[in-house]
Amino acid sequence: MKLLFITLGLLALAIAGIAIKLWAKKDGEFAGTCASQNPMLNKDGEACGFCGKMPADCENQ
Q1: Is 58 exposed, middle or buried (0-12, 13-18, 19+ CB in 10 A)?
Q2: What's the pTM value of the predicted model, to 2 decimals?
Q3: Domain range annotation of the chain
Q4: Burial of 47 (0-12, 13-18, 19+ CB in 10 A)
Q5: For 37-49, what is each residue's pLDDT tens digit?
Q6: CB-count burial class (<10 Å; 0-12, 13-18, 19+) for 36
Q7: Which of 6, 33, 34, 51 has the highest CB neighbour count under 10 A?
């Protein structure tokens, strides 16, 4: 039972940390989630399938 409480406590702490990070970030977005920013995933320079941005349009390059 003690292990269950420790596990749930750590899980709650992780979720709270993610929530605080989203709350503190501008526009509440995770940084670098666009696949077009990753040269290993986008070798041909195609537009992102999620947001439609081209690699040159991404801010964090």
Answers
A1: middle
A2: 0.47
A3: 1-26, 31-61
A4: middle
A5: 666 666 777 777 6
A6: buried
A7: 34
